[in-house]
Design goal:
The complex is a heterotetramer, with two copies of chain A (360 residues) and two copies of chain B (326 residues).
Chain A (H helix, E strand, L loop, with lengths): L1 E11 L23 H22 L13 H10 L5 E3 L5 H6 L4 H8 L23 H15 L6 E6 L6 H12 L4 E7 L2 E2 L2 E2 H4 L8 H5 L2 E6 L3 H16 L5 E6 L18 H8 L3 H11 L5 H24 L7 H4 L10 H7 L10
Parallel strand pairs in A: 1-7, 2-3, 3-4, 4-8, 7-8
Antiparallel strand pairs in A: 5-6
Chain B lengths: L2 E2 L1 H15 L3 E5 L15 H5 L4 E3 L4 H13 L3 E5 L10 H8 L2 H4 L9 E6 L14 H5 L5 E3 L4 H13 L4 E6 L8 E2 L13 E4 L4 E5 L2 H15 L4 E5 L2 E3 L3 H11 L2 E8 L4 H11 L10 E5 L7 H7 L3 H13 L2
Parallel strand pairs in B: 2-3, 2-4, 4-5, 5-7, 6-7, 10-11, 10-13, 13-14
Antiparallel strand pairs in B: 1-8, 6-12, 9-11
Classes of the chains: A alpha/beta (360), B alpha/beta (326).
Bound molecules: thiamine diphosphate (2 copies) and magnesium ion (2 copies).
Chain lengths: 360, 326, 326, 360
């Protein structure tokens, strides 16, 4: 018996739970002020999240998937994405999209039940939200293939949950990315739950990062509540991708501090103690503590930011609520580039312009 | 006799089947401690334990394929797919295996499994949560397709599906899950898996539907009754095999037929019903068969779904056209 | 003008499209050095290189999903699925994404892709190599479904499919791949994607089919002609959107219609054609619409497949019933 | 950065290419005569394979998938399977099935286009041949789950090719087997090709065995041309499975010495030199050399065996060719347990007992 292959999974964390540096920080964090934009974005994400939940609770929005707890991942990724990269979100990456320039009321429109929520004029090549788990990863392979084919220095960044790692699509995509050495980073947001399914029962694998070994591609595990670590790890992975050095799977460890969606009640399947423990590791307070300790953030800054974020959330809600309802023609407008003649009567009937007549 | 809503009736049937037959196992995403996202499996974990009430990893193709293996090995798996929109990943297993195992092995192995899933729109859910894939499943040889439209029928048909020696796709109308209650005797009595239900007798017009659209269709029949029109209402219920006789007998009486489905029109199950009428039913037809269907569009998100769905006005308009036709 | 068989015509159209449009890429299992298991892609690797003629890993769902990503990023992917029986794993991507990307993003992203696959039985192939899934695809909103039945139509329709800005499922009748040759001008001229072909005019009876069954249907029409019956033969060719007008115009003339498909009967595309006739065509019908279809069984292995397939005698029997009906 | 997980893949081989022991052999091989039945089975497999190809070439059988080169895998597995285990083959495991007692003419019937080829009265719980790649692995999970649920001391052994490791189904099955610690062994027959696709372009993974790491389950790589190694590795894996110690992925390295099927022409995509090299490592000669060198096999034995195998192949062909053609009713007989009334007219029409009448 001989050993023919060896592997290891590495983990990156810079800040401890209280925001204290565990060792030397990456270059970009030498000046703590460089992290202030990320912090501001994280607080805004939280304000928008709270607003969305309030809208849902008051019957003005449909089912909504909260982003509470994953702000460091979204902000860390947002900081290292370049304009020409392509983001392929799941349904929980509104934070990243805000940093891509997508107006917050679009996200509200999406969860409010309007396809116009997936129109991102600010970031037109990014993919829409994706609900069927892991299916977006195949799209990401296609995007990355197109980038490579044209010899462009861009990358695709696709997101998926811990639950998504059990789907065949996840593995098919990683494998293909490895075969063609594609400019693709897949970021697994391991928030410990897939609805009620805890991470440890989703798979017997010790880490989710190691799933990359099956595809023969690079992997890294990172503390997803540490914005500096996320930025570092994802930034390097994207740089490698753009440089033609191939794909990476990044597992970001975090915790879903909210219910799965507003239609879920997490108290049915997890304890208050577990949740309380998780709150101690949450990312916003951690980064604030580090910024404050390093003289880059004050109480006054915080008060002003809170006010600003509240106003922006309010404005987003207003823009959402004032968006006129879609007209029925929206069902047909972009069904095809041009609606085939065979379906014109359906459009007319849906818009109340004609009767549905079997003998038309 | 307890008054149950539709999802409670499903739950009751599952519990009953698990109690009566130790081979029955329930599996799917979040069916255990969470009791299913619609609570169809609530209480089962506590009563029957985690070996028989199985929370699966997030892998629909695996779930369907695994059920095939379980069934061949002598269990009676009842799968829950969380929403019909996530069942497409199971089609490979259902088409290439579940419906074929008995035939492929000439009776040596068989596949007594049930695959349940909530279907249909107008529950204000997110994207991909509003699908009506019955026509796709009804095209698959070797399986049965069932769609209940009331608590009592859900109970009796689900028990029959679980007891059936062949694979059954069981499509539950999510919109009706909690819409009303009715008395359901927990008597373990199955309903026939090849008989349509005549819910209302009438001689002027035949209205045919299944699943959530039965509810809309009955409301339309009420409205017609107020105008003095006696519409016969048929709940197909067992889509595959289709009980053509009941529909043909009705149309032989009425001469006029409206078929209602919320699925996209082209190649829908409404087309199958209409095709039967164009063939065996032609001599009875006094008016064109009206199909009132979802448009050939993507089911829109919540803000527009009411404009996508067949509703009472659309059914009435079709009924009036059929009645007026000379 | 070269005389090409159907698979050569497909090959010619692929080469032409790749030459005319650098965005066109071909991908699938064994499409590169092997030239495809049916040789539809032979020579492309040599001419256009491995970056545009892409041998993929064995992952159908990935192939379909990847094409969606490529299309959204501005390429024009043409996927080959090795056999239709292996396309079921792509249905999730086709139903949930390909047909929806444009709508979901309200025109921001689109999905100009083609998914080609050999379909149909009677090529004496192993299990799962004889499927006819057109009805499933035709039910999917937002896509087009095309099924050529001659070399020239394969050439023109495939070019049109590749040029089309929306996803097209392109179903190639494997049984006809090498059955005969005809002159096909390599002129890059596309055919319309929403027009049925009237292959033979007649006033006594309308025969409707598509794909490999067109061949069988034409033979039946020949036999009828020898008896003095003038059958009109329509090749639907573009199943979705369906050209209802051509079929209705024909039946308005003949009053009698036989629809032929080798797919299982229930919820087949033949049902859709019959449903159109039961609705808009009813007044024209002088006889019940005959569906001559595959049985509602698993397509059997080679030794029995001839007993499964619609053939000239079955089509003739149906035609005679329709003609005799008073 | 810290290392949070480490893995290795081990490789087992006992005999070198010329059949010389590389070191101490496993217990069961101490007496070389114990390997004679495996050798005899391997030679029979080759004879049956040659007969099938001859039948196909002469138009008396349909497309056929050759087993040439994988005899050590089939014989090694066959030797360690117990009667109550369940085999889930792909389309290329006729060798294993012969060792399960399946009569060779059944295999000919299958490739001859008759469903009766999947009737295995001798081995009634084994699964039929499976063509849709990797789909049988999900079935294997269900079988193994049923075994575990009932607390039985049995195992499932499922086969898949190197190409199959790219399918999502493969990963979904391994992951689930890990989650439930199922009595399942998945054997990947790495014959270096998936039709024309060479192993190295199927995946960037250095080994296929390492794909188990994604699922957190045990894995081993074995020389699939070494019957002793296969028997050892698979035997231990099955024993662990039956004992409740969980699933194993075994990658068996071999080479497809034939075309993919009789419908394929491998010379289109691989060189004669490569094939000639592979023949040097083939399993039958290797085991024969070892047996002979250890006094357990003679030239006379070989001559007698050749004769015996030729006769058995001939008998199988005869049994196949003499099987009366199926009647059309076979399409309906086992479609359902009982044919629904709605389809009876179809049966009657197919059997020529009634006309198809739209107005019936
Ligand atoms: C294919 C598919 N199956 C089931 C669902 C229903 N569903 C929505 S979210 C979810 C859990 C996803 O968990 P994870 O991947 O960890 O992402 P998270 O929600 O935690 O961000 C499930 C099962 C779905 N959307 N898609
Ligand atoms: C899902 C699916 N896709 C495609 C095919 C067509 N096909 C048959 S065998 C094969 C290659 C399989 O390669 P591998 O898994 O290595 O097995 P091998 O034939 O080498 O034993 C392909 C692509 C299939 N049978 N199933
Ligand atoms: Mg999660
Ligand atoms: Mg192989």
């Amino acid at each position: 018996m001989s050993v023919v292959a060896r592997f290891e999974v590495r983990y990156t964390q810079y800040l401890d739970e209280r925001g204290r540096a565990l060792g030397p920080l990456p270059e970009f964090a030498r000046d703590p002020r460089a992290l202030v934009p990320a912090y501001r974005a994280m607080v805004l994400m939280r304000a928008l999240d709270a607003k969305a939940i309030a809208l849902q609770r008051t019957g003005r929005m449909g089912t909504y998937a909260s982003t509470l707890g994953k702000e460091a991942i979204d902000a860390g990724c947002g900081a290292v994405l370049e304009k020409d990269d392509v983001v392929l979100p799941s349904y929980r990456e509104s934070g990243v999209l805000f940093l891509r320039g997508v107006a917050p009321h679009r996200v509200f429109l999406y969860w409010g039940g309007d396809e116009r929520g997936n129109v991102f004029p600010e970031s037109p090549r990014d993919f829409p939200f994706c609900v069927p788990i892991a299916t977006q990863l195949a799209h990401a392979v296609g995007v990355a293939y197109a980038i490579r084919l044209r010899g462009e220095r861009r990358a695709a960044l696709a997101f998926a949950g811990d639950g998504a790692t059990s789907k065949g699509d996840f593995h098919e995509a990683l494998n293909a990315a490895g075969v063609w050495c594609l400019p693709l980073v897949v970021l697994v947001v391991n928030n410990q739950y897939a609805i009620s399914m805890p991470r440890r029962r989703q798979t017997a694998a010790e880490t989710l990062a190691q799933k990359a070994i099956a595809a023969g591609i690079a992997c890294e595990q990172v503390d997803g509540n540490d914005a500096i670590a996320v930025r570092d790890v994802v930034g390097r992975a994207l740089a490698r991708a753009r440089a033609g050095d191939g794909p990476t799977l990044v597992e970001a460890l975090t915790y879903r501090l909210s219910d799965h969606t507003t239609a879920d009640d997490a108290s049915r399947y997890r304890s208050a103690e577990e949740l309380a423990e998780a709150w101690k590791r949450e990312p916003v307070a951690r980064l604030r503590a580090w910024l404050a300790a390093n003289g880059a953030w004050t109480k006054e800054d915080e008060v002003a930011l809170e006010r600003e974020c509240a106003a922006r959330a309010e404005a987003a809600a207003k823009a959402y609520l004032e968006t006129p309802p879609p007209d029925p023609e929206q069902m047909f407008r972009h069904l095809y580039a041009q609606l085939p003649a065979a379906y014109r009567w359906q459009r007319a009937a849906a818009c109340g312009e004609a009767t549905e007549d079997a003998c038309a | 006799m307890p008054a149950l809503n539709l999802v409670e009736a499903v739950n009751r049937a599952l519990a009953r089947a698990m109690e009566d037959d130790p081979r029955v196992v329930v599996l799917g995403e979040d069916v255990g401690v969470n009791g299913g996202v619609f609570r169809a499996t609530v209480g089962l974990l506590e009563r029957f334990g985690p070996e028989r009430v199985v929370d699966t990893p997030l892998s629909e193709a695996l779930i369907a394929g695994m059920a095939i293996g379980m069934a061949a090995e002598g269990l009676r798996p009842v799968v829950e797919i969380q929403f019909a929109g996530f069942a497409y990943a199971t089609l490979d297993q259902i088409l290439n295996h579940a419906g074929r195992l008995r035939h492929r092995t000439q009776g040596r192995l068989s596949c007594p499994m049930v695959m349940r899933m909530p279907c249909g729109a107008c529950i204000r859910a997110p994207e991909h949560h509003s699908e009506s894939p019955e026509a796709i499943f009804a095209h698959v040889p070797g399986i049965r397709v069932v769609a209940p439209s009331s608590p009592a029928r859900a109970y009796g048909l689900l028990l029959a599906a679980i007891a059936d020696p062949d694979p059954v796709v069981f499509l539950e109308p999510a919109r009706l899950y909690r819409l009303w209650r009715e008395e359901v005797a927990d008597d373990g009595a199955p309903l026939a898996l090849d008989r349509a239900f005549v819910l209302r007798e009438g001689s002027d017009l035949t209205l045919v539907s299944w699943g959530a659209m039965v509810y809309e269709t009955l409301s339309a029949a009420d409205a017609l009754a107020r105008e003095g029109v006696r519409a016969e209402v048929i709940d197909v219920a067992t889509l595959k095999p289709l009980d053509e006789e009941t529909i043909l007998a009705s149309v032989a009486k009425t001469g006029r037929c409206v078929v209602v489905t919320e699925a996209p029109r082209t190649c829908s199950f409404a087309s199958e019903v209409a095709a039967v009428l164009a063939g065996r039913g032609l001599t009875s037809l006094l008016a064109p068969v009206e199909r009132v269907t979802g448009w050939d569009t993507v089911t829109p998100l919540a803000r527009l779904e009411a404009r996508y769905m067949p509703d009472v006005p659309r059914i009435l308009a079709a009924a009036r056209r059929a009645l007026a036709y000379r």
